[in-house]
Amino acid sequence: MIEINKVSKWYGSFQVLTDCSTQVAKGDVMVVCGPSGSGKSTLIKTVNGLEPFQEGTIMVNGQSVGDPKTNLSKLRAKIGMVFQNFELFPHLTIRQNLTLGQVKVLGRSEEEATEKGLKYLDRVGLLSQKDKFPGQLSGGQQQRVAIARALSMDPIAMLFDEPTSALDPEMINEVLDVMVGLAQEGMTMMVVTHEMGFAKRVANRIVFMDRGQIVEDCSKEEFFGAPRSERARDFLAKII
Ligand code: ADP
Ligand code: MG
């Protein structure tokens, strides 16, 4: 479903991604980990065209992300993205946050969008909060709304960039539980996270990055059991 092939990217003269290749198949749950600054966010953002790249190709569902002929906003509509800082619209209610993209991007009626949005809000356990504003919710609740909003677009895959790292510790699990549920239902997911418990529970692939390179791309058994690279062993020793 997602095919990243020899992707390199530079910010000016600084090479942030070097020859990155990996694939995410339908139903895969890929966890991307690695030290801060290793290029994880940059890599995940290239997948839905939020960051351009200079070399290589990325195919999503048969469409080339780097091809100027590709309609990026249509492509992005198919891939849900959840960020560290929720990025809800602060001046809109939760219900309006859930319906805006569906109406504007997918052309759904207000009624259909509301029905779908509230279904997912209920699923993340927050239906009773529908008329509040984001600022009235906790961080964990806001992130669950962000996930519900992404799901309301009927994505073919979901990208997560450190979805729990801005949260207070007691709120991390409520977000991870929603993500575990999605993984268990077969959602295709690419998740940048330091939550190795999550990786152990639901990942079927682990990508480890260091200095802009994909250093390991393997099963979780292999990664947690016997990582091949020194750099991955060092990383695991520090984090677990
Ligand atoms: P990670 O998500 O693994 O922490 P990032 O992908 O955010 O890493 O960043 C990788 C490297 O690229 C870092 O060294 C960071 O400072 C640099 N970088 C990120 N964004 C920019 C930018 N817009 N301009 C220049 N350098 C950047
Ligand atoms: Mg990052």
TrEMBL record:
<dbReference type="Pfam" id="PF00005">
    <property type="entry name" value="ABC_tran"/>
</dbReference>
<dbReference type="GO" id="GO:0015424">
    <property type="term" value="F:ABC-type amino acid transporter activity"/>
</dbReference>
<keyword id="KW-1003">Cell membrane</keyword>
<dbReference type="GO" id="GO:0005886">
    <property type="term" value="C:plasma membrane"/>
</dbReference>
<dbReference type="InterPro" id="IPR050086">
    <property type="entry name" value="MetN_ABC_transporter-like"/>
</dbReference>
<dbReference type="InterPro" id="IPR027417">
    <property type="entry name" value="P-loop_NTPase"/>
</dbReference>
<keyword id="KW-0472">Membrane</keyword>
<keyword id="KW-0813">Transport</keyword>
<dbReference type="InterPro" id="IPR017871">
    <property type="entry name" value="ABC_transporter-like_CS"/>
</dbReference>
<feature type="domain" description="ABC transporter">
    <location>
        <begin position="2"/>
        <end position="236"/>
    </location>
</feature>
<dbReference type="InterPro" id="IPR030679">
    <property type="entry name" value="ABC_ATPase_HisP-typ"/>
</dbReference>
<dbReference type="GO" id="GO:0016887">
    <property type="term" value="F:ATP hydrolysis activity"/>
</dbReference>
<keyword id="KW-0067">ATP-binding</keyword>
<keyword id="KW-0547">Nucleotide-binding</keyword>
<protein>
    <submittedName>
        <fullName>Amino acid ABC transporter ATP-binding protein</fullName>
    </submittedName>
</protein>
<dbReference type="InterPro" id="IPR003439">
    <property type="entry name" value="ABC_transporter-like_ATP-bd"/>
</dbReference>
<dbReference type="InterPro" id="IPR003593">
    <property type="entry name" value="AAA+_ATPase"/>
</dbReference>
<keyword id="KW-0029">Amino-acid transport</keyword>
<comment type="similarity">
    <text>Belongs to the ABC transporter superfamily.</text>
</comment>
<dbReference type="GO" id="GO:0005524">
    <property type="term" value="F:ATP binding"/>
</dbReference>
